[in-house]
Amino acid sequence: MTRLGLQLIPQLPVVELIETVQAAEELGYDYCLVADEGFMHDVYVVLGALAGATSRITLGPVTNCYTRHPAVTAAAMATLQEATGGRALLELVAGGTMVLGPMGLTRTAPLGTVADTISICRQLWSGERVSWEGNRFRLTDAQLSAGAQQIPIWVGARGERLLELAGEQADGVVLMVKSDLGDAMDVVEQGRAAGDVRPLTRVYLDRLAYTAAMIEEAKGLYSYALMDSPDRMLGNLGLDPAEIEALRAALLHGGPAAVAPLVTDTMLGNFQIAGTPDQCRATLGNLVAAHQLDVFMMNVTTSGLDANVALLTEIRSIVRDSSPS
User: Fold this and answer.
1) Residue 295 sits in which domain range?
2) What are phi and psi of 215, to 5 degrees?
3) Domain shared by 218 and 287, yes or no
C-alpha cells in the first residue's frame, strides 16, 4: 500500500502547524516534512516542537546546502533523531531562487554541494572523528557529540545530474511533476546502476486538485513550475518556448495571480493530478503502478486548521482507494 506523507510550508502559526501534524498522525500519515524556507518559521524549532507533540510519524526538514553548512545540518539531524526516538529523516534539495535570492546567495555547483552534504552527514553520523575534503566543503578533526546515527537521506531533484546522484547515493528520491515522472525516474535508475544499489524510496510530491476551487488555486501555484526547472521538465509540461516566455513575463510583471489565467486545464493536468475525485484516484493509481511509487506526499501550503484536517482526511481516502491492498 502506498504510504502517505505531508510537506508543510511553515507560514502557518506554530500552534496550527503542530495541530495539523498531530491530526495527520492520527489519520495514519507516515511522514511529515517541513520546508526550510529561510524567512518563515525556523524549520528546526518547528521540528523540535513536533518531536514532543507526536509519537509515531517520521519528521524531517526539506533543506538546502547553502543557507546551512552540512555539518550544522548533520548536528541538527542527530539532535532530531534523539528527540524523536529515531524518527528523523533528511531531505536535501539544491536550493531555489525564492530562498537563496533574498540572502544574496547563488546556487553554484549544486551537484558537488549536495554530494558533499550527503558525505559529510554520513561520515559525521558514524560517530567517529572525521577529517575530510570534498568538492565544496571540508571537515577537520570533526566529531558529533550525539554518537552514531542511522538517518535516511532523501533528495528532491529536477535536473539530470542531481537525479543521477539521488539514484546513486540517496535512500529516497522526491519527484514533483506528474508528466515528468517517467523520464525523471529513468535518470534515477541510471544513477542506481552506477551506485551501491541501496534500497530506494520513490516519492511523488503533489497537491491533488479535485474541486473547482482547488483547480483554480492550483493554477495560481503553476508559476512555481517555471522556476529553476530544466528543459526536460518544461518539455514534459508540454510548453513551447513562446508559452514559456509568456508565462515568465506574466510572472515577472504580475506574480502568480497574473499567471493563473494563462494556465489551461491541459497545462495543469500535465503538472499535477487534477480532476474529479474518481479521476484523481484513477490517475494516482496508474502513476503508482507505472513508476513503483512508495510514498505520496501532499503539499500543504495554506493555513486554516479545520480546512487542512479536512483536506488530509480526503487525501487519505483518495490515496487509500487508489492503492492495491
Assistant:
1) 3-211+273-322
2) -65, -40
3) no
Whether 271 has a pLDDT exceeding 70, the answer reads yes
Whether the per-residue pLDDT at 94 is higher than 70: the answer is: yes
> Is 66:39 a contact under the CB 8 Å cutoff?
no
Cell 498531530 maps to which residue?
A: 22
**Could you tell me whether strands 58-63 and 130-133 are parallel, antiparallel, or unpaired per DSSP bridges?**
unpaired
pLDDT tens-place string over residues 306-320 = 999 999 999 999 998
C-alpha span between 59 and 81 (Å, rounded): 9
Q: Which three cell numbers stand for residue 62?
A: 526539506
Strands (DSSP E) found in 9-53: 31-35
How open is the CA angle 116-92-73, to the nearest 5 degrees?
70
- Kindly report whether the global pTM for this prediction surpasses the value 0.90: yes
In one letter, which amino acid is 112?
G
Closest CA to 150 of 238, 228, 288, 58: 58
Identify the pLDDT of residue 180: 96
Query: What spatial distance separates the first Cα and last Cα of the chain, rounded to whole Å?
Result: 6
| Sign for the pseudo-dihedral over CA of 163, 96, 59, 3 | negative
Question: At 92, is the secondary structure helix, strand, or coil?
Answer: strand
The total of structural domains in the chain comes to 2
- Is the domain of 142 the same as that of 155? yes
- The number of CA neighbours under 13 Å toward the Cβ of 59 is 33
CA distance linking residue 78 with residue 76, whole number of Å:
5
SS3 readout for 211-239: CHHHHHHHHHHHHHHHCCCCHHHHHHCCC
Pair (83, 93) in one structural domain? yes
